[in-house]
Amino acid sequence: MGRTQVVLLYIVVAVLLLFLISRSPNKTPNHRSRRLKVRSTFNFNPAASLDNKHREHIPFDPLIADIERRREDKEWEKHYFQTSHKEIVDAPAAEAQPEWEDFMNAEDYLNDDDRFNVTNRLVVLFPKIDIDPVDGYVTVHELTEWNLNQAQKEVMHRTLRDMEVHDKNHDGFISFAEYEPPSWVRNSNSDNNSFGYDMGWWKEEHFNATDADGDGLLNKTEFNDFLHPADSNNPRLLKWLCKEEVRERDTDRDGKLNFKEFFHGLFDLVRNYDIEEHNSSQISDNMMEGSAKILFGQLDKDGDGYLSEEELLQIIGKLHPSEKYYAKQQADYIISQADTDKDGRLSLTEMIESPYVFYSAIFNEEEEYEYHDEFR
Asked: Which tens digit of pLDDT belongs to each residue from 336-374?
């Protein structure tokens, strides 16, 4: 074989190797300056979902929401199996399953520009948000409705998952006899002083108030209201919420709230809601009582010096904020961060220029510090 032929052979082999390397599945992904992360926020304790102070925002992108939902379902199934079938879990033959394999695969997918391109995702999602009206801009209202729709899908998914557990006869309905309080309630102190029992979350009165058609059964909509009463339009359920607020704050047990009980029990919740809703400033401590008296007088419609369950209906949405409240909070935050020309709305260009406002991320490990964005 001549020298020229040998050189040509080496060139062919080199080209072939480069081709094979380029097609290899172990190809190093194209890392961004910030790495998208999949949250791990699963909590098997339902009480956490009732704590508005630690409420998790729903992902902006439905694709990421689906990834997180699948991961949460697997964790939920694992925890439920361990809780309900402990004798099997503790058996010697039980094998531990890898917990983070799917988690890491999902993150690798999200951080591979060839498979998940943030700019392309924003281009795809923009016309789905810009619908009221279709004018080439995303307003606070449009973004709020988008966030709310994503949140409602997430909430209903969790409701249907819980319904499968409690619907013992698989008829698509939940009776009170079928429904069992979760383990965190059952295993509480015998005097029933745990969160949940003291507010009546798992009692028959709550169940009956949720049963809008009075047939003794909860369909999926009613069961969703049962688990998430703040988002319900059922007047009986909202009145039940008011009754529970009175029951919890009524220290002298007269069935209504005097000013002291209102001021030390509910006023802070209303004030914090108004501060966040209207971006108003904090008021000084010496002004708080005066403001509380003004509000108390406005709520006390019959002027008897007390607040009844019916009178609390006027502020129940502030005591138990709905998903729409949090959806608007998220929309306000996003627009405040991405609206570069400060016209109160977002163009597609502004969204593309601020992608990490929409996608939670941290810097790569090479960076000296981390960036955390709670809104996704």
From this structure: 999 999 999 999 999 999 988 888 533 333 433 333 333
Q: Are 206 and 213 in contact (CB under 8 A)?
A: no
Nearest to 209 by CA among 240, 177, 247, 165: 240
Angle value at C-alpha 238, between 50 and 303, nearest 5 degrees: 120
Q: What's the pTM value of the predicted model, to 2 decimals?
A: 0.74
- For residue 228, give Cα distances in angstroms to 21, 152, 289, 323: 53, 11, 32, 9
Tell me the per-residue pLDDT of 183-220, one tens digit each, with 9 for 90 and over: 555 555 445 444 445 545 678 999 999 999 999 999 99
Helix axes 118-129, 140-166, angle to 10 degrees: 100
Contact between 146 and 334 under an 8 Å Cβ cutoff? The reply is no
What is the four-CA torsion angle of 148, 117, 107, 66, rounded to 10 degrees?
30
Q: Where are the alpha helices (DSSP H) in the chain?
A: 3-22, 62-84, 86-89, 101-110, 118-129, 140-166, 183-186, 204-210, 220-227, 235-249, 259-265, 267-278, 285-299, 309-312, 316-319, 323-338, 348-353, 355-358
- DSSP-derived pairing of the beta strands 361-363 and 345-346: unpaired
What per-residue string of b and e applies to 57-75 under the rule 16 or more CB within 10 Å gives b?
Answer: bbbbbbebbebbbebbeeb
Q: Which helix (H) or strand (E) holds 175?
A: strand 174-175
